[in-house]
Request: fold
Amino acid sequence: MTPVNLKAATKVYCRLFFNHINPSPCTLCGKGESHSLCPDCLRLLARVTGPVCRCGLPHGDDATAVTDLTPPLCGRCIRQPPPFSASQSPLQYTFPVDALITRYKHRADLTVERAITPLLAETPLPWADTDAVCPLPVHWRRQWRRGFDQGTRLANLMGQYWQRPVLPVLVRQRPTPSQQGLTRRQRQRNLRKAFRCQRSVTGLRLILIDDVMTTGSSARAAAQCLIDHGAAEVRVWTLARTLDPR
Ligand SMILES: [Zn+2]
Ligand SMILES: [Zn+2]
Reply:
């Protein structure tokens, strides 16, 4: 059970309340009273389109078909296949999505979540045989500082839209230092044994949910933990995907 930081949580919800009674103009076009992003600008956000690799990267020139039957994989997925079987993200992690997500999680600005709600609500369930969704958690100390956990909030929203139960079974065992600016190898070292699964998920087909997939190292570690605890299949859904993880 994650302890509640009343001070941080109060700050998050007070900010949301004051923005509600005193809305700010759209971050992008500066027009209207929009709570961070107006519906017109929401439609302009860069989407991830076309077929993607198992890691969620759109197929570029380096996509190689392993067999005629399997979808082509990127170079990294061939060298080091991820434990999850597919991933999907509606948005590209480029401007202004990167700025919005930074505002969402580092400045605890829930107006961003409210602005993207129409986009989330119209996102169809990507895999119909899914049994439940599972948030990719932050360490409780980070959640304590922020007053909320964006992975859990997104999982609760998507579980509601997709009509699937939310299983918060994963726990981050130790505070992984910020992954920003680290190489892939450093990220992997950071994440070894980072997660613990609180109960068996035997036979379940799960969607792991997070805000952003960058190199996919966290998703790999979390998916492996779920599979070690019996999950039949793990797929990953993130709000945004970094297209150039270098
Ligand atoms: Zn706008
Ligand atoms: Zn790949």
Notes: Residues 6-241 form one domain. The CA atoms of residues 98 and 129 lie 31 Å apart.
